[in-house]
Amino acid sequence: MDLHEVLYNRIAVLLSKYDSFLRFVRSGKTNPMSDDVNDYINREISWLSFNERVLQEAKDPEVPLLERLKFLGIFSSNLDEFFSVRVGTLQRMIDAGVKSGAMVGLSPKKVMKEVHRKVLRLRDDFDRVFVELTKELEKHNIVIVDETQLNEAQKSFLEIYFQEKVRPRLIPVMLKDIPSFPYLKNQVIYLVIDVCKKWDPNGSKFALIEVPADVLPRFIMLPDSDCCKCVIMLDDVIRFGLDDIFATFEYDSIGAYTIKMTRDAELEIDDDVTKSFFEKVSESLEERKRGQPVRFVYDRDMPYYLLDFLLKKLDIQKFENIVPGGKYHNARDFMDFPSIGPESFYYEKKIPLPHKDLLSHKSIFAAIRERDILLHCPYQSFDYFIDLLREAAIDPDVSGIKITLYRVARNSNVVNALINAIKNGKSVTVVIELQARFDEESNIYWTQKLEEEGARIIDGVPGLKVHSKLCHITRHEGNDIVYYSCIGTGNFNESTAKLYCDHMLMTRNPDLTSEVEKVFDFFAHNYKVYDYKHLVVAPLQMRKTFEKYIDNEIENAKAGKPAYIHAKMNSLVDSEMIQKLYKASKAGVQIRMVVRGICSLVPGVKGLSENIEVVSIVDKYLEHSRIFIFCNNGDERYYISSADWMVRNLDRRVEVATPIYDRSIQKELAEYMHLQFLDNTKARIINDVQDNQYKRAGEKSCHAQEDIYDFLERQLANEDDK
Questions:
Q1: Which residue has the higher pLDDT, 254 or 289?
Q2: Beta carbons of 532 and 515 less than 8 angstroms apart
Q3: Catalytic residue annotation
Q4: Which domains does the chain have, with CATH numbers?
Q5: Burial of 526 (0-12, 13-18, 19+ CB in 10 A)
Q6: Which residues are within 8 A (CB) of 457 and not within 5 positions of it... i.e. 6 or more apart?
Q7: What is the structure's pLDDT at 22?
Q8: What is the percent of the chain where pLDDT is above 70?
Q9: Kind plus residue range of the DSSP H or E element containing 591
Q10: What CA–CA distance (Å, rounded) separates 630 from 633?
Q11: Quick check: 119 pLDDT over 70?
Q12: Is a pLDDT exceeding 60 seen at residue 459?
């Protein structure tokens, strides 16, 4: 079966599902899964519930103080992306006149209203947490001051800083003097200036200033005041200098109010056959900058007449997502708050553990020849993978390296190692995904860089995103050609590998490596579609394979045999997979899941999902691994995967799941999952009301991320004792 036939079959299935869905909509039911109301949680609402869990971390007094501030930044960054991507999609559906039923029983307009309601509530929570954190900082003599709270030394410092650093970057635009309102860039903060004449309202001036947070730090350390460390935000430095900027105007008072526009970030890829895909993506990035508005946030203290002026000029009076906010926007910058304060303000820094199987080996190839190796990042160092690439680059027996890149670090050691391999005469093939959302420009840069150095570049597969995490090394050993493969759940990115919980299998097993070779052959020649007996590859067979495993558990449960599924993923949205899990629950299969983000499945509903337990863990590290364990009547099947159970992963991306055959690694994964399920510190219970209650069961305190580190450390100590 070739790729076109596979896609044709999937389209036929989707059309059939759509026809069934239309019949469901006409039936007047509220949910397509069953006659119950709460069988399926809308993905947008579930995502907001996930971001509320991030906000919970900012609220948690057990989290170190400046880490709580960073969680505010993560919450804000997440919300920005949510509006750019998901709300942008909703808005396009509304503009296209899509009616009820498109969002699983809800119209896009109803979903948009619910999103707006929940976002306003979360925004109020955010503001309260921010005030609480600033008060906590003040108790520890760290003060975020504004332009009205400066002593003479600080004013003198800022006068110089403003003139030398800030003033040259500012371009005030007088709004009443131009025919049309300036274009507001996506996710950029602006100050709207109200230059008032008390006795001559018509003589008042309005101005717009872009806050240059892309070239200047958002937070500036000031001279200490009364033993307090003082920080001022760039916005307030500009407010401090307003008198200087508008000195030529006569005014009685001057005010500055923050606004921000969020725009639709979806790329519209041109279908012009005369252009390369590289050119199409590059042009689409320029179009993204002028995407349609999806959210307008303003300072709630802004005078009504000024807000009314802005909404009219921007032509968004009837816009759904006009959100009142605080004095400061783009709180994502709190992720880069200055490193001040004692060590207790931060998470304990734990050194990545050595891997038990890599301790006594100078050569990583030699270690992999002895047995399969599973890296647990960030508990163990991602540097092992970079060391493997470096070793391959200078090994005279290595002839080629093939790798998929989706997101790479800014100054990528992975790319540097690949360039080193090229300079050492190795053949290097890089499959780089140009449509990795918000990393497109970076990937275009690395594409050009690698191509200049002599790498063979494959810029994805037409119609499919390449999301699989694969590295494949060809080595000549005696008269044989031997393959070494790395198959992972996360990106080949040394920066995120310090923050994301991911797994990577390093293997020489020919059953697996020969099929990784086939995947790369498919990347090079899209018409070559193989039958995989070990790897599970989307969109060719992943859905069917996992459905088959679930069906097997159902049959075993009906026959009175042991039957369970343990799964971990980032998102569970695909309705077919959810229905399979409901069917398994009804048959008596015990299902335990860790789903960090979106979960459209509703656990614990009597007669539907009473045998399904789902928790979400939000903690110091981002839970990112995808792990699947099927009981299989006692002969368990273990997989790690790059794919979540979402339509896009199963049907519209090239994803790879690898079986884990090594028994000792299976035990590691089983213990890893066991510790996740035991967590009663950072685990939240997923349920129909989306209230994010903490799981507090058990007499003993269990903290998965801490306990996993301790488990791997004990494992290492046991090896030393042998």
A1: 254
A2: yes
A3: 467
A4: 3-114 (1.20.58), 145-345 (3.30.1840.10), 364-524 (3.30.870.10), 536-721 (3.30.870.10)
A5: middle
A6: 430, 432, 447, 450, 451
A7: 36
A8: 88
A9: strand 590-595
A10: 9
A11: yes
A12: yes
